[in-house]
Design a protein that fits this description.
Blueprint: E1 3-4, H1 6-13, H2 17-26, E2 33-34, E3 40-43, H3 44-58, H4 66-79
Antiparallel strand pairs: 1-3, 2-3
């Protein structure tokens, strides 16, 4: 399995490195492992989860709380439940 640094994930997905950290904080991706120096180590699974989260956030569905349900599903996916 490939591993990536925060900046590599950001470049691969087309987002700012701070957005990578924000998605982790919001629970939209699984928590990455950390190196001894505290740096995050992302995997291919994280990259796919980012893509899922980005797709979910681009959907402009406002009726009946569907956007909240989509975000909830992304978080469940990130948690591995």
């Amino acid at each position: 399995m490939n591993t990536y640094r925060t900046s590599e994930v950001a470049e691969k997905i087309g987002i700012h490195p701070n957005t990578v950290r924000l998605y982790e904080e919001l629970g939209l991706i699984p928590r990455p492992q950390r190196q001894g120096n505290g740096y995050r180590v992302f995997t291919d699974l994280h990259v796919e989860q980012f893509r899922l989260a980005r797709l979910a956030l681009q959907i402009e569905v406002m009726q009946n709380g569907l956007r909240k349900k989509i975000i909830h599903m992304v978080k469940v996916s990130a948690a591995g439940d």
